[in-house]
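Why predict the complex rather than its parts? Because the way molecules touch one another can change local conformation, and only a joint prediction can capture that. The input here totals 1422 residues.
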Amino acid sequence: MSRADGRRPDELRPLDIQPDFLEQPHGSVLWAQGKTVVLCTATVDDGVPRWIAGRGTGWMTAEYSLLPASTGERTAREARTGRQQGRTIEIQRLIGRALRAVCDFQALGERTLWLDCDVLQADGGTRCAAISGAYVAARRALDRFGLSKVFRESVGAVSVGVVGGEPLLDLDYSEDSTADVDLNVVMTGDGRLVEVQATAERDPFSRDRLGELLDLAAAGIETIGGEQVRGVEAVVG
Amino acid sequence: MSRADGRRPDELRPLDIQPDFLEQPHGSVLWAQGKTVVLCTATVDDGVPRWIAGRGTGWMTAEYSLLPASTGERTAREARTGRQQGRTIEIQRLIGRALRAVCDFQALGERTLWLDCDVLQADGGTRCAAISGAYVAARRALDRFGLSKVFRESVGAVSVGVVGGEPLLDLDYSEDSTADVDLNVVMTGDGRLVEVQATAERDPFSRDRLGELLDLAAAGIETIGGEQVRGVEAVVG
Amino acid sequence: MSRADGRRPDELRPLDIQPDFLEQPHGSVLWAQGKTVVLCTATVDDGVPRWIAGRGTGWMTAEYSLLPASTGERTAREARTGRQQGRTIEIQRLIGRALRAVCDFQALGERTLWLDCDVLQADGGTRCAAISGAYVAARRALDRFGLSKVFRESVGAVSVGVVGGEPLLDLDYSEDSTADVDLNVVMTGDGRLVEVQATAERDPFSRDRLGELLDLAAAGIETIGGEQVRGVEAVVG
Amino acid sequence: MSRADGRRPDELRPLDIQPDFLEQPHGSVLWAQGKTVVLCTATVDDGVPRWIAGRGTGWMTAEYSLLPASTGERTAREARTGRQQGRTIEIQRLIGRALRAVCDFQALGERTLWLDCDVLQADGGTRCAAISGAYVAARRALDRFGLSKVFRESVGAVSVGVVGGEPLLDLDYSEDSTADVDLNVVMTGDGRLVEVQATAERDPFSRDRLGELLDLAAAGIETIGGEQVRGVEAVVG
Amino acid sequence: MSRADGRRPDELRPLDIQPDFLEQPHGSVLWAQGKTVVLCTATVDDGVPRWIAGRGTGWMTAEYSLLPASTGERTAREARTGRQQGRTIEIQRLIGRALRAVCDFQALGERTLWLDCDVLQADGGTRCAAISGAYVAARRALDRFGLSKVFRESVGAVSVGVVGGEPLLDLDYSEDSTADVDLNVVMTGDGRLVEVQATAERDPFSRDRLGELLDLAAAGIETIGGEQVRGVEAVVG
Amino acid sequence: MSRADGRRPDELRPLDIQPDFLEQPHGSVLWAQGKTVVLCTATVDDGVPRWIAGRGTGWMTAEYSLLPASTGERTAREARTGRQQGRTIEIQRLIGRALRAVCDFQALGERTLWLDCDVLQADGGTRCAAISGAYVAARRALDRFGLSKVFRESVGAVSVGVVGGEPLLDLDYSEDSTADVDLNVVMTGDGRLVEVQATAERDPFSRDRLGELLDLAAAGIETIGGEQVRGVEAVVG
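Output of the joint prediction:
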């Protein structure tokens, strides 16, 4: 089976990232992966929520949102409906856990790191792009304050899935919506697992299939990791 | 390392289930797994939401809630605060996906299956107990209407984790809160995977570790499956 | 006129109560009155809300909820709709007033007593069952902390009504929905009135009718009081 | 004991009512009872909510609100906080039940009667004043449409209570806040009971006490009924 | 073109104002301008919100609401729907800015001035009537506390518009709903501008047209200012 | 007085606009005016809200939002707090009125035009930038469907103000926060007024001052209009 955009099964979509896309936030990156475009920003505030103050450790919070026109059919603005959708909440909890797993909160000290991931255009894989981009935005913000040791290692993510019986890397929206199995994988730069979220959209799957998919994801995240290094180290403006 | 309640690492907590615990709902079960107690009920309504009507297929929705006094420290009632917590939403989405993966919506016809999982007492593993129990409640409700073919196979769940470096089956709350890795696994009766949700709470983990944990889960779910069969087939009253 | 379940007009439904139904809350009781089943729990916390702190007196709060599948036709979960219904609010205010009327807040000291009444199955009279059960749960929690003097006397409740022209004790749902007059009565163990809520559902009623109904209620609450004593004093586990 | 404003125990506060206080609503009355001032309006709309349409019967809904500056200490605006308080909900449910009990919904036909009771100034007894005034506003609105037969009889309300051991009629705020027993009574024009809501604020009370209070209320409501007749029949403008 | 009520183009509707309409609030006025009737109240509280405390300066907040039956077609109660409409929010922000522009917060000291504008009957121009009336209510409240210097000058407002090609002063609802241009003007007693909000409802307009409309408004506000003086100085009761 | 960025008093900030910044929405533009960056998108849907269907005319709705990290100090996400702030609501109502004033809804036919203005970076003048950009995005979307006649003329906006006694064009955030008078002006391409919103932040102002400010705005909007033409006509990709 060939993919609509001509990619090989184990090929990522083209990555195009613009570090410090904005001037005012402490750190930011415009992360484009194929047609999926996510604006990730990071803000470092002094102080932590009252209920953990005085312990010398920091706090991190992640938020995720789809801009209304980001999706093929316009999505209602959650500020308008008055509540975040279940999907939004699930995704921002995932982003938060992914970044926290590699964060040294002692090294952060009594500061709060806000990560905002706003999807400007959605074409599949937005939660994984948000994680990969949030790491870059966070590093650009932290490095500015001499806090580059806060992350013990890098973290990136990619989606893989089984479409028409074939394992594919980095699904776009049309692939994702016909996948039998859908797997989001978050890994550290040195290849260890942070999160595995596998879902049988149509058919339950075997342990072997899970293994194949994890192999595919590991290779993809390695490539993404290289791009993240370039984003963190880029000299802008 | 020995477990506080004397269990072996690969041992489930005692299961005590009461099918048709209530008379009025179409199906119900009081699922007790150690001190964790979940009341699962299933209601079959004619008709489906307007936006899928007329296609001859059914609909299923799952809801999950902690009763305020179910937790060690009382939890605020979500009806009072006016919104479901992120954790609640994440869990009920998981329960819904788990059951939908084995459901034949054509066989259900234009009916809605409501699954309600209310945790009366929480001591770890409530989302997995809810899935295992929801299957039993759903089957008892469906069988009553001659719809026993709606589920293509059974589905059960268990949590496993790494505590103090050792893989353990069916964590209770005290174990769960000190786990390095936490894994919720949903499997069918014939041993295929429906959902895998692995999280590095403290340390990223290796592929080998993931394998060990999945082995442990598979054995546990097999035992749970036997109990589910007894629950589905029990003659009550 | 004979009642559907064969009871005499002045006969309560069978009471079946299980004190300490749960292990974790400070006090609990599963109160079954016919098919109406209410889980009442009581939690004693140190401290009171900020705005009454420092006066040496305690605080009590009561909450009431119908589980979705408790009713014949499934009720929407209030946590989902984002607001408690008027009926829920009215009932939990009644439960709170009933228990507060016999509570010595000086004796409670700067503690908060949480009473949670969750209806697992509803067949009429849930608010009265909740009051009767909440008293038992509260006493089991308070006695555990040596606070058995907090309640100056016991309190119980029952519904009465006029159905088909005849006064009946302890209406079930089918009777309640055809009643001309509906009366909820809360009384102390020594027979004094705490709350009287009489409503002409169909026809305004006379003072004499009110008197008959109060007589019927007084006898019923006396019987309930005996069951409450057994529940408070039961040795469990 | 003498009352602060010199009234006898069985004396109402002065009534000053202005029918058709506003020009635009179908019916309105400014009901002043002592310092308590309630603006009651009634609107008759064609049609009923969808779920009762086609049966030929009408619908009535009542709403109650305190204006922020109506109370001694300013009350937060419920539109601002985003939810109605429990007290508000309880009161508007009472108003609705009181008026529905004397309403012939067949005679109303497929129309909706909106009753709005907005308290401009609160000095005790606002829920009872709202009921008495709502009846007048409703009648003025209905009579305009030739629907004067919709109410089978008139309905009025008054509060009574025990203050310092003495039964008093028509409590003002200072009396109400020190009452041992508080009783709201709704009666028809011919002296039958529609609602009795008795609450032991401090001490449980006897059946005899309840009798005395009901006698006091009945006399007060009779006087109010005369004023209502004048309000319904007044020729304005 | 002649106006429906026979007014000249530059003529205000009749003003009928009742200062201290209520006894309990610190200041109040019932402001009737034609059929538009607004109840404005002012409350002076000691203290300011926490986040500006300790600076010796005061705080002011304004709220606006339409009573449900104030409009021709009944408006849903915002406390019921759980959120204020955009129009309400826009108007109360305007009222707040108008009054703040002439307020000396140093002179107010650490006090909060609450202004509540509740529209009892709406026939166009309610936001302007609310501003004119709020000034009177505020002055009556402040004068009572010896704070008559808090307002550096008086402030009033009026709406003007172009209807059928002709500039008109003080539009009523029927005029407002057919206006091509709609202009709300807030001015001080000495003729300076505080707010100008001009909107082309149908056709964009010229600078000259804006000039004509401002002339018309200035004359109207001068007349209103005279009425405000009488309202502030009236001896009541 | 010289401006911090060296601009003349009557000089706009540099404009940098990218039409069709995104591929998926029907029309989009990234509008940068100095450091203020707004992403405007336009979506054309078939159909209109039910309550205006069948009249052959269209509908337009505008929404505005600040991304959390767009502001110097991070702004809470409105989807999180559950309600849009008053400022947000006021601004999106202004955007909607501005665009509607030049829209021929007959020419639009039974379609809905969604305009979304999301501020990626805020440095003053965001509401005016949103209006200017929304026009470009809307035109790009409409032209794609052969609906270029829907807008009868172009519309643009700019803010002006008095800072330190001097009238200035196109205030940035630091200027805006010290302005005595703040004026947002919306004009058509041929120089007629659509909206004038003038506010005395500190001191009431004279008619002459208003005239000077409108002159300054008119010149600025003319320059913006030229840029809009380039944006509408640009050939992208």
